[in-house]
Write a structure and sequence with these properties.
eight-stranded mixed beta sheet
């Protein structure tokens, strides 16, 4: 086993945020040392924090283990190119950056396609319009959509030194009175982030714990759909106070909602459900705002909420303007139409539910 062989193995490790270029051609491999029974790889990172750092370290370690003879020890070091000194893990930040957040609330769904992110973004804006200090962390690391929905996809958060040496903090993007953070700000447009569970969990924690949120009344966390590793990691490592569950009225969505509710109510997690939001509760044509067509079924979410013993926070109609507003980066909750007022009422009911706990 030679250093050249190790470099060849590392040339197969791609950086998801750099057009899938490999780390060798990007000049990130500072040094490779091969001694008897051990391989040491040193990766160089720029002064600006790379949110994929932990992922790349794991990918390098896996590439060497996969190709090297059995029993070889692998060590991966990281240095800052401008000041060659090893950095501490960003996850050592602990909970310092959320200590001034009054309520951390997860927005979850049992399955995809129910408009969870649309609800999360508009709920954040509604809470801001009600006078609260609000932030939203886009934790859907597989399909971050918050940058598009807020018209901030061309922006990238700045970073500043933390109080301790080697710890830098991201500054969230501020728009519409809300502080936004998403992994989508660091990935190339259209770039698929293909991560295993531990890598996704690590990125999620950085999107929350390495962000300078400041004092907030509400920090919403837009979770990916399902009930997997990310959700469990979140509630175990971050002080999530409770959850809001989003569904649509049709039976296939409601069946998965029950699984999501059961996850949060499991004794090992034990977080309250502040309520259920029935999205796409009915269809209303733009030209006939008083008409309602129950194309996905009627009151399925309301019935499910009653059966599970949780509150129904609101029923959001399926209106063309909601979709158009999200695609245009100007969430509908900014306006004064009935669909905007529905989100404002949703915000009021969430505040009431949180204050009852």
């Amino acid at each position: 086993m030679t250093e050249k062989e190790v470099f060849d193995w590392l040339s197969q490790v791609q950086h998801p945020g750099k057009d899938d270029k490999d780390i060798v051609s990007l000049g990130m491999v500072e040094e490779v040392t091969v001694t008897e029974g051990k391989v040491t790889v040193t990766l160089g990172f720029g002064k600006r924090p790379d949110p994929l750092k932990n992922y790349l370290v794991g990918a390098v370690r896996a590439a060497v283990y996969r190709n090297a003879p059995g029993g070889v020890e692998v060590e991966v070091k990281t240095v800052t190119k401008e000041a060659p000194a090893a950095k501490k893990s960003t996850l050592d930040l602990g909970l310092d950056q959320v200590n001034e957040v009054a309520h951390i609330i997860a927005v979850a769904s049992g399955k995809g396609g129910v408009g969870k992110s649309t609800v999360a973004v508009n709920l954040a804006i509604a809470l801001s319009r009600l006078g609260y200090r609000v932030g939203l962390a886009d934790a859907d690391v597989y399909g971050p959509s918050v940058p598009i929905m807020t018209g901030t996809e061309d922006l990238q958060p700045e970073a500043e030194p933390g109080e301790e040496e080697g710890k830098e903090l991201f500054i969230p993007i501020e728009k519409y009175g809300v502080k936004w953070m998403s992994i989508g700000y660091f990935a190339q447009p259209g770039q698929a982030l293909i991560w295993r569970g531990p890598m996704a969990c690590s990125a999620l924690k950085q999107m929350i714990l390495q962000v300078k949120w400041g004092p907030l009344d509400y920090l919403l966390i837009d979770l990916p759909p399902g009930t997997g590793d990310i959700h469990i990691s979140l509630v175990n490592d971050i002080p999530v106070e409770g959850a809001v569950i989003v569904t649509t009225p049709q039976p296939v969505a409601l069946a998965d909602v029950e699984k999501g509710v059961n996850m949060f109510q499991n004794p090992s997690i034990n977080r309250p459900i502040f309520g259920l939001v029935e999205n796409m509760a009915w269809f209303t044509p733009e030209e006939h705002p008083d008409e309602k067509y129950y194309i996905f079924g009627r009151d399925g979410g309301a019935t499910m909420a009653e059966r599970l013993g949780i509150g129904l926070l609101g029923q959001i109609p399926l209106v063309q303007s909601i979709r158009e507003a999200g695609d245009n980066g100007e969430p509908v909750a900014l306006g004064t139409r009935p669909d905007a007022l529905a989100f404002l009422e949703l915000g009021r009911k969430l505040v009431e539910a949180v204050n009852k706990e």
